[in-house]
Amino acid sequence: MSAPLPLEEAQQRLLELAEPLPLERVDPPSALDRWLAEPLVAARTQPACAMSAMDGYAVAGNDLSGPWQVIGESAAGHPFAGFVAAGHAVRISTGAVLPDGAGAVVVQEDVSRDGDRLILTGDGPGSPGKHIRRAGSDFSEGAVLADLGARISPAHVALTLSAGHRHVAVRRMPRLTIIDSGDELAADPADCAPHQVPASNGAMLAALVASHRCEVNRRGPIPDQLDELIAALEAAAGADVIVTSGGASVGDHDLVIPALQAWGAELDFWKVAIKPGKPLLVARRGRQIVLGLPGNPVSSFVTAWLFLLPLLRRLSGAADPLPMKRTAHLTADLAAGGERREFLRGVLTEGVVTPALGQDSGALAALAGSNCLIDRPAHSPVLPAGTPVLVYPLENGGIA
Ligand SMILES: Nc1nc2c(c(=O)[nH]1)N[C@H]1C(S)=C(S)[C@@H](COP(=O)(O)OP(=O)(O)OC[C@H]3O[C@@H](n4cnc5c(N)ncnc54)[C@H](O)[C@@H]3O)O[C@H]1N2
Ligand code: MOO
């Protein structure tokens, strides 16, 4: 068996196996947290014409001191049809069209009105253009508002509508099947003999991908029997991605690789030079991609975070599928590294990071108390407190 792959090479190989899924058009609210499959180009100018940014009076740009005669009103949705000459003012509301001839807006707090007579009592608009949103001040028709592969945030939902689009192009949501396997797994956590452990990885993985727009099916726990594992793979016929957890290592009962071979999948790589997560495997059958995650719960989490989430983003058309990293300073000494690059659990607060106490790949409590992974290179010397290290924030699936 070849040497474990370096992390970046393994991630790259996985991402190259996957093509973005077919394009579909959905209404903008349904596109939230998905990725643009086409650049977002403005189909209109916003605002389409000059508008008031305040409630007050529209006056001519060369007549900022008054007094004025109020000759009409421009309310939001009801423009004033006339012209504002020097000496005239038009009552105007926020978001109403600026009448022809007007060059500034005096806020109502700065004037006193008696019938149609208006005088300045406060500061006045000061300069022409004050309190006016000029046409196109947000964007103009034809402008590229967001690039292909950008993540669609709540602001993008509004921007898409504001730009005149009923629909937005995204990629079909990935379909994911998660398979728990292992004879020791108890389906009922409250009925678990000492030789068993509650099956928790499948639920954790489903929760981990919950922030990603995808369809999830879960199967298992499946016993350590080849025919049962093959049947579980067969049952995942509609899945774009099949995730197994457990049975990926070298033990006599680690049957994921033989099951994949019997099912007709082609192994792309097995083993990555990281801790936890070394026995990760990637295979493919046709367009279906299989990610075999190690069974240790923290190993499953870390490999899902480093591989599964980026894979789902790639299938969904994300421009930048890999997780976000940043630098933070250690609050305590970090022990020397070993043979493998290690992703240690830690707590990140305002630029400083504290490694968690439990770093075993079965230590779920320490994982749950952490909010980042600390990237410690292989063979790292002891790093004293204060040293900057690379960290991966875990919130939000590790993306902004
Ligand atoms: N001789 C060697 N032994 C091991 C090696 C090695 O290189 N040589 N690698 C170790 C590493 S690293 C890891 S990681 C584990 C991964 O092994 P598997 O993927 O085969 O996982 P299992 O043996 O099936 O389970 C490991 C552990 O995790 C628990 N588990 C499994 N599935 C679940 C689940 N769905 N929910 C909760 N817990 C689960 C399982 O009970 C075991 O305790 O192999 C090392 N061994
Ligand atoms: O790599 Mo294993 O995932 O150390 O626990």
UniProtKB/TrEMBL annotation:
Involved pathway(s): Cofactor biosynthesis; molybdopterin biosynthesis
Cofactor: Mg(2+)
Catalytic activity, reaction form: adenylyl-molybdopterin + molybdate = Mo-molybdopterin + AMP + H(+)
Single annotated GO MF: metal ion binding
BP terms from Gene Ontology: Mo-molybdopterin cofactor biosynthetic process
EC number(s) from the headed UniProt entry: 2.10.1.1
CDD domains in the cross-refs: MoeA (cd00887)
GO CC annotation, single: cytosol
Cross-referenced InterPro entries: MoaB/Mog-like_dom_sf, MoaB/Mog_dom, MoCF_biosynth_CS, MoeA-like, MoeA_C_domain_IV, MoeA_C_domain_IV_sf, MoeA_linker/N, MoeA_linker/N_sf
Domain of life: Bacteria
Residue ranges annotated for the MoaB/Mog domain, each copy included: 177-314
Protein keywords: Magnesium, Metal-binding, Molybdenum, Molybdenum cofactor biosynthesis, Transferase
Function: Catalyzes the insertion of molybdate into adenylated molybdopterin with the concomitant release of AMP.
Recorded family membership: Belongs to the MoeA family.
PANTHER family: GEPHYRIN, MOLYBDOPTERIN BIOSYNTHESIS PROTEIN
Descriptive protein name: Molybdopterin molybdenumtransferase
Organism field: Novosphingobium ginsenosidimutans
